[in-house]
Amino acid sequence: MKYVIVLGDGMADYPVPSLGGKTPLAIARKPHIDALAPLSEVGRMVTVPNGFAPGSDVANLSVMGYDPSESYSGRSPLEAVSIGIPLKETDVTLRCNLVTLSDEEPYEKKRMIDYSSGEISTEEAAELIAYLKPYFDDAIFRLYAGVSYRHCLVVDHGKAIHEFTPPHDISDLPIHPYLPKGEGSEVFLDLMKRSYELLNNHPVNQKRIAEGKNPANSVWFWGEGTYPKLENFEEKYGLKAGVISAVDLVRGIGLLAGMKVIPVEGINGNYDTNFLGKAEAAAKALEEGLDLVYIHMEGPDECGHHGDVKHKIYSIEQIDDKVVRVLKERLEKIGPYTMLICPDHPTPIVKRTHVSDPVPYLLYRSDRPYPSSATAYDEEEAEKTGIFVERGCDMMSRLIKG
To answer: Secondary structure of the chain: what % helix, strand, coil (to 5)?
Structure first.
C-alpha cells in the first residue's frame, strides 16, 4: 500500500458573497476530486486544538500525525531547521518577515500594507537581509535569510516570553496595537524601527517602487519559539516518508521527523507554483521506494490572505487537474494506494487570515471504496456526512490502518 497526502494550505473557506454564498471549494471545477467523494470517507476534522492559534505550524503538525500539545515549540524553529540554521537548545528563534509599511511618522503610526512585500523575490530579499545583517548581528542576535519574504532571527540564550502578532493578521490595520509586548520586547521594536531607517531608501526598494511594486521597507518579528524535537516518523508509523513543499515551515517539520525532503524545480508558495512537478516528483518517489509522500501547496492560503478569490479557485482547480489526476494515473499502475485530500486550516476570503474551524477531508482507498453519502468534496458536503474527527493528529493512524 502506498500513501499520499494532498494538502491545499488554507483551501477551506466561508461562503463568499461574490460567489453567491458558496465557497471556493464548492465553486471550483474539480472533477477528479469530486469523482472520489462517493467512494471515500468524507468528513471534518479538527487540526487546531483548543488553546492554539490557528497557524500552519500547528495544523500541519496535526495532519502529519503529531499532537501539537506534545510536539509544538513555536513556528520559527521549524523554519530555522529547514533553512539550515545551527540551533542550540538555549536558542530562541523568531520569524522575520520583510513587510511593507505605510509612510506615516513616527513608526508606531504606520499601517501594515503588505505582509509579504508583494511576494518579494528570494534574490531581492537576500540582498536586503545581507544589508541588514551587519546592523543586527552581535553576541546575542543572528539574522538569517530564507525564501522570499520569510526569514529568521536567532536569539542566543533568549526567553520565549514575548507577545508577537503575525503580520498577515493585521493587513491594512494600524500597527501600534500589535507591536511586540512583554519583558524586554523593546529591543525587538528597536530592530524593527532601525530596519525601516535602513531599508526605506535602499536601491532594491527604489527599483521596486519604480516598477510599481511594494517595497520591503521593514522587518516584522513573530512566531517566537524554542528548540524543536519530533519523534522520527518511520519509528512512529512504520513508513518511509517524504515531503514536498516550497515553504520552510513544512520542510522543517519533515526534516525534524526524519522524512526525505524531495526537491522540485519551479515551486514557490503561491498559485503559480509547479503543481505538475510536485505530483510527478511524489509519484516517482513512491515508485522508487517511499511509502508515503506529503505534498503541501501554499497557493490557496496566500490567495486567502490577499482576498484573491479568483486565484484561490484557480489553485484548487490546479490541485485537482495537475496533482490529483496525475497521482491517480501513476499510482494505479503501482498498486493499491490511499489518498488523503484536505487543507490544514481555513483561510477565509472574507477574513484574510487563518481560523480554527474544522476542515473538510476526503480519505480514499483504492482497494476498499467507502460508500459515502457525499456527492462532492467541499465544506457543506463534508458537514452533511456527520463524520467528525476530534483530533487531527489521529488522522494519520486512520489513513494507515483504514
So the answer is: 40, 20, 40
On the question of a cis peptide bond just before residue 263, with omega within 30 degrees of 0, the verdict is: no
CATH 3.40.720.10 domain range(s) in the chain: 2-73+231-401
How many CB atoms are located within 10 Å of the residue 361 CB?
Answer: 27
Query: CA of 93: how far to CAs of 153, 169, 193, 349, in Å?
Result: 6, 20, 19, 30
Nearest-angstrom CA–CA distance, 301 and 310: 13
Helices and strands of the chain, counted as H and E runs = 16, 13
pLDDT band for 227, please (50, 70, 90 cuts): confident
| Structure confidence at residue 222 (pLDDT) | 97
- Grid cell listed for 240: 518511509
Class of the domain covering 2-73+231-401: alpha beta
Partners of residue 114 on adjacent β-strands: 100
For helices 56-63 and 248-256, angle between their N-to-C axes, nearest 10 degrees: 40
Q: What backbone phi and psi angles, to 5 degrees, belong to 56?
A: -65, -25
CA distance 270 to 297: 8
Q: Determine whether 363 is exposed, middle or buried from the number of CB atoms within 10 Å of its CB (0-12, 13-18, 19+).
A: buried
Q: How confident is the model at residue 340 (pLDDT cuts 50, 70, 90)?
A: very high
Tens of pLDDT, residues 16-29: 999 999 999 999 99
- Grid cell in block for residue 310: 479568483
Closest CA to 247 of 65, 49, 57, 85: 57
The C-alpha atoms of residue 133 and residue 235 are separated, in whole angstroms, by 39
Mark residue 138 as left, alpha or beta (left: phi above 0; alpha: psi -120 to 50; beta: remaining). beta
Joined together, the cell numbers standing for residue 40 give 471515500
Type of residue found at 337? Y
Strands (E), 117-217: 141-147, 150-155
| Number of C-beta neighbours around residue 321 at 10 A | 18
Is the distance from CB of 352 to CB of 308 less than 8 angstroms? no
By C-alpha distance, which of 64, 25, 32 is closest to 47? 64
Phi, psi of 303 (to 5 degrees): -65, -35
